[in-house]
Design goal:
about 15% strand, Rieske Iron-sulfur Protein, elongated, seven-stranded mixed β-sheet, binds FE2/S2 (inorganic) cluster
């Protein structure tokens, strides 16, 4: 029953991990450093908040191989869980991947249950303990074949009520089995017990023979599944580039600044007005010309948070604290979508006012008040 009880969960996490791996490979933007949803953006976004930030700093230079490795790992885990091949090993892989993602992109998810990685971490644990439970799995079929080849009979377990065994083999009374016409009691004539059969060792077999055969057959099946998985991954990546998502419009967000920093305000809007004459209040941020029309530039505020300033139309500037309210990743500007996008869990925010369009972020971005002075400098008001 354990195998059947876990079967829906097994299908769900198997399909999800397989899909997640294929989706990453099919999406050219995932490997494009200019895309706010790329692996590079995810690493940079999570570096500031992750307890593994020291490690992430070193991994940045290997972002593309790391992205490929994560994708292939997800595909391997998905296939293993789905077809029930080396299910426990696949589940351990799923636990490891989920834990890594939790410690990088979801560690500060608030509330904590809005981060999916911690849920997947716990969803894999029953399969580490129970494997596939012998239900619709290659592991069970391989075990059966190995057992038959070793002359051990079909190992498939089934449930028999104890009262049935008593009816067939027992009802011991005065040293006789009344269930077997008062013959002497003993397991050798009972149809549901193994009594009287020579043991495996008595027959000259090795006690670990079924395990050994299972590993050999399972290894062959794993190699075949691996080759099929790599072929599917290669075709998916090729198709994704041929007919899938268009590469990101290059936004090449650069840093703006004069070296000064600023702090977020609770202003309702970050929109700016051009001031004629007097220099506006606030700290100078940098030249307005450093922010492209329909583009963005980044800066660092006084509290260390990353900020983003945009110019949605000529002379109209908006600025936000770029920390995503969901788990603290750094949002980036997607020129293709004309939105601010969080690379960690995909929250999207309006450029015009920072409102959240797509969760899981519970709120919008914190706006800054920004004004362009007559000297062509942008000023952030405190
Ligand atoms: S950190 Fe989760 S959506 Fe931004």
């Amino acid at each position: 029953m354990a195998g059947w009880a876990l079967f829906p969960l097994r299908i769900f996490i198997g399909v999800t991990f397989l899909f997640a791996g294929l989706q990453k490979l099919a999406n050219p933007n995932f490997f494009d450093a200019n895309s706010p949803s790329s692996i590079q953006a995810q690493l940079i976004a999570s570096e500031r908040i992750s307890p593994l930030h020291l490690l992430i700093g070193h991994l940045l230079q290997f972002a593309v191989p790391l992205g490929i490795l994560i994708s292939l790992g997800e595909i391997a885990v998905g296939i293993g869980i789905l077809i029930g091949l080396w299910t426990r090993i696949a589940a351990i892989g799923g636990v490891g991947l989920s834990l890594m993602l939790f410690l990088t992109v979801s560690f500060h998810a608030s509330p904590y249950y809005t981060g999916s990685d911690i849920v997947f971490f716990f969803a894999f644990i029953p399969f580490v303990i129970a494997g596939s439970g012998g239900v619709l799995s290659l592991d069970a079929n391989i075990r059966r074949r190995a057992s038959l080849e070793a002359g051990r009979g079909d190992p498939t377990p089934f449930v028999l009520a104890f009262s049935q065994i008593q009816d067939l083999c027992g009802n011991f009374d005065k040293n006789r089995c009344t269930a077997r016409k008062n013959e002497p009691c003993g397991p050798e004539k009972c149809p549901v017990l193994h009594g009287g059969e020579p043991s495996l060792i008595e027959r000259g077999g090795r006690p670990d023979e079924v395990d050994r055969r299972s590993v050999v057959i399972g290894s062959s099946a794993a190699v075949a599944a691996g080759v099929a998985g790599i072929a599917i991954a290669g075709v998916t990546a090729g198709l994704g580039r041929a007919i899938g998502a268009a590469p990101t419009a290059k936004s090449s967000t650069t840093a703006i600044g004069t070296g000064s920093t600023t702090t977020p305000t609770s202003a309702a809007s970050g929109a700016t007005t051009t001031t004629q004459g007097a220099k506006p209040a606030g700290r100078p941020l940098g030249k307005a010309s450093q922010v492209p029309v329909n583009g963005a530039a980044t800066f660092t505020s006084a509290n260390g948070d990353p900020g983003v300033v945009l110019q949605p139309s000529s002379g109209n500037f908006v600025a936000y604290d770029a920390v995503c309210p969901h788990a603290g990743c750094t949002v980036g500007y997607s020129k293709a979508a004309d939105l601010l996008v969080c690379p960690c869990h995909g929250s999207e925010f309006k450029v015009s006012n920072g409102d959240v369009l797509t969760g899981p972020s519970p709120t919008g971005l914190t706006p800054y008040k920004i004004t362009e002075g007559p000297d062509g400098i942008l000023y952030i008001q405190m």
